[in-house]
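Course assignment 3, question 2. Fill in each field.
Student: A.L.
Task: Predict the tertiary structure for the chain below.
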Amino acid sequence: MSRTSGEHRFTGDLAQEYELITLAYPDFEAFQHQMIEGIDFSSAGTDRDVPFHLLEIGTGDGFTTTRLVQAMLEAPGAGLITSIDNDPNQLHKAQEHLREATKGGHVHLRESDALAYLQDSPDESFDVVATAFTLHNLEAGYRREVERQIFRILRPGGLFTNADKYAPRGQEQFDALAYQIERFFQAFVPRGKLEILQKWVLHNISDQSPRYAMFADETVSHLEAIGFKGVEISHRSHMQAVLRARVP
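Answer field:
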């Protein structure tokens, strides 16, 4: 399998106006908070041979990264967040949002393909792997290899958590997709954003195609087969849900 996904799904208007996504997801921040609150940063303050280290896959414009840094700094002790993204334009935006955190050495931003970075990382080198609205953009086979590599690089007791589109099955999947498309119309039509509306609708339909669809039940089975324990998907809201899984 190639070390790179070979594709950037956020280009042109989708990349330039990515922040408009919050118009169609009014609970966007609360949803990501539900993912972050499941991370125990307190181990950053314990006496240990290696520092607490969190890997974020998919920096984007730094929205989630900023909140991860805030949560880590509110915990006792110190730690490090490494955040990777394969889009230099998005990383540039993130650098602006995270200027103080990068100066303080709390976060390192890296331009890299997800699988390539994971494969180059040593075994048991991270305490947490966190990601939000990124993995559903990966082709299914590539994503499964990413999940296998996440298991390998997590330390014993480590956490993998993801706030993302975990599709249900059957009619519920299509109801959730219809709901999301309706939200895009409600958000973009009054603002005259018809061209970007078309692109986001097509993007969301593509998300549920056989190439990309990330089904909840299939994901749980795959993670358990890899060796993860306590795999759970919670906080479902239509298509969105939060996944948590641990390395024994």
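Instructor remarks: Residues 13-246 form a domain with the Rossmann fold fold (CATH 3.40.50.150). The first strand starts at residue 52 and ends at 57.
Grade: pending
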